[in-house]
Amino acid sequence: MIREVYPQIYLNEIPFPKNPLKALNSYIIPSQGRSLILDTGFNREECRNALMEGIRASGIDLKRTDLVLTHMHVDHSGLADYLWKQGCKVYIGKKDGILLNNFRTSPEQVLGHLSEGLNLNQGIGMKEIEAFDIAPKEPFAYTPLQEGDCLEVGPYRFEVIDIPGHSPGHIGLYERKHKLFLGGDHVLNEITPNITFWHYKIDSLGNFMESLNKIRRFDIDWVFPSHRSLIQDHRQRIDELIIHHQERLEEITGILRDGQKSVIETAARMHWDLSYKSWNDFPLTQKWFASGEAMAHLEHLVYKGEAQRVNSEGKHYYELVNP
Fold first, then answer.
1. Are 35 and 65 spatial neighbours (Cβ–Cβ below 8 Å)?
2. How many helices (H) and strands (E) does the chain have?
3. What are the backbone angles phi and psi of residue 119, rounded to the nearest 5°?
4. Residues 94, 208: contact at Cβ < 8 Å?
5. Residue 323: how many CB atoms within 10 A of its CB?
6. Domain segments of the chain: what residues?
7. Range 2-255: architecture per CATH
8. Per the confidence metrics, is the pTM higher than 0.90?
9. Per-residue pLDDT tens for 260-314?
10. Which of 220, 260, 251 is nearest to 236 (CA)?
11. 3-state DSSP call for residue 262?
């Protein structure tokens, strides 16, 4: 069921059964001109049914609707092809559009450096990714967006804002007059956005922190996030997220004081707000997410000059510069 969360802005909750994310907040903004949908859910039947039920309830015509993907992750873009075939025009940030199509056709190209950094002989291999790879395999046509572009929908004029971090090309939509921000996975309540490693030339965590501070300066009354509850005091929540990652960096620094560690050795000793008793109990997907986040923090310490990445017998390890 959809519900109006602001005049002419509807939240369409897409359920994620047996997934810790629980659901996606997709947004529908009807208009007599072109309507807008923000994000879609996984490429799964239960997600498609919920998405289409909300679309039918909103009364919009998909042939006169723009679909904006805040970023390339499959829980946001999985049904983009389906809506495109129904007549929607699809938009996504320029960097994530390239990543999305590359991931569909050559996932090993996108995940290669992460796989390398995880030392695959420790139990997380590229072939095992297929166990949770539910993205469509074909590239699709999209219109790239970048900061400064604008989308007008009914009474709203949304400015595209670049907010890299959660993904390299993550974007949000800012409505200056009404002080609204459709932020995707950038600022979330109750949970923290996963910040993962993408490439040795990208400081994912550093980019995320800069993007948080960027949005902190915006005049915003409501943040409409992609998961969990709506946010009113965005500055307080941003401060909480910054403190969380500062504590993560302190935790990892403490782990490295015991000596050189691989990414997975680091992740296995970190605290995670999950119900599993030990690292060995983590499902494969959770090991990937946890290890990717650990590596993003380790690489941020490298960028800051506080740690260094070393190669020993073909394996990657991290150690403090001044233990």
1. yes
2. 9, 14
3. 55, 80
4. no
5. 11
6. 2-255
7. 4-Layer Sandwich (3.60)
8. yes
9. 999 999 999 999 988 888 998 988 778 888 999 999 999 999 999 999 999 988 8
10. 220
11. coil
